[in-house]
Amino acid sequence: MSEHERNEVSGVHTDPAALDDLTSAAEKESTGITAAGGVEGYDPRRTLRFGVEMRRQLSRRRTQLLLGLVALLPIVLVVAFEIGTANANARQGGFIDLATVSAPNFVVVNLIVAGGFLLPLIVALYFGDMIASEASWSSLKYLLAIPVPRQRLLRQKALVAAALSVMTITVLPLMALIVGVIFYGAGDAIAPTGEAAPFWAAVVSLVMSIGYIVVHLVWIGGLALLLSVSTDAPLGAVGGALVASIVSLMLDQITALEDLRNFLPTHYAYAWTDLMAAEINWTNIANGALSAVCYGTVFCLLAGRHFARKDITS
């Protein structure tokens, strides 16, 4: 049997025009599958939108409790200072003794009190809970099956966590300023060295201080995100990042480490206080911002690499 006869028997059309017609007919009869493999009308850029995820996170009891706790802290400190006035000899030095001088001083003390534990906890909780909680609820696999591209899901979750962190951190000094003006007045900010700054100049310095604090906490956000994609336990991700911060603060107190302490991510945690001086020393501020960004970038890259290879079916 010739080749032509075999083709006719088997029904194979070797005519290029006939093959084009068959291909066109198959495309018309398809059920809306595009050349990229997705359903017709599917756009990965429209999945897991920022606003939708933001509203979802704001509706969670965890977020509401954190915002309430941060807003309540200045009032708790006012009560503590009012009670503490009975023991005037119990002085701690620095900004603490000047907390009741004016509203800007009161804001500084709030940031100092919250800087060691509460602010890192806020960032670690938002970033550490984002992916790990979805995995613990067994909803991560369904999110990716919508499908939401993995890197988009990670990016959107990280952006929402960053927005929530900035919002929550900002609530603290804003409430402290309002409470401070009510109880201590809008006077000049007095530094421990005796330097005085007008109220509005002090407010500008506080805004820059908040900006530095946000940048400095990038490292713990990156670490919490890395732990969040590495475990299905949200508490483990949040706790791991917070423990790392506490250990770093403890190591920073060991003077025997000398210059090695400069490489600790928390070494420049309170460099923002230099912004409250009349003449600002930008060295520690620049070093702290660079250190935090470097640590945060490395942790985020590792998180993205691990999440891209993560088995989410188990």
What does this protein look like?
The chain has helices spanning 3-10, 16-29, 50-58, 61-84, 103-115, 118-136, 140-144, 150-184, 199-216, 218-228, 234-252, 282-309, and strands spanning 189-190, 196-197. A hairpin with a 5-residue loop joins strand 1 and strand 2 (196-197). The protein is built from twelve helices and two strands. The model is unreliable at 4-14 and 28-37 (pLDDT under 50). The longest helix has 35 residues, at 150-184. Helix 10 runs parallel beside helix 12. With 314 residues, the protein is mainly α.
Please describe the structure with a list of short key phrases separated by commas or semicolons.
globular; 12 helices; 314 residues; 65% helix
Q: Outline of this structure?
A:
The chain contains 12 helices and 2 strands; from the N terminus they run H-H-H-H-H-H-H-H-E-E-H-H-H-H. By secondary structure, the chain is an all-alpha fold. The longest helix is centred in the middle third of the chain and has 35 residues.
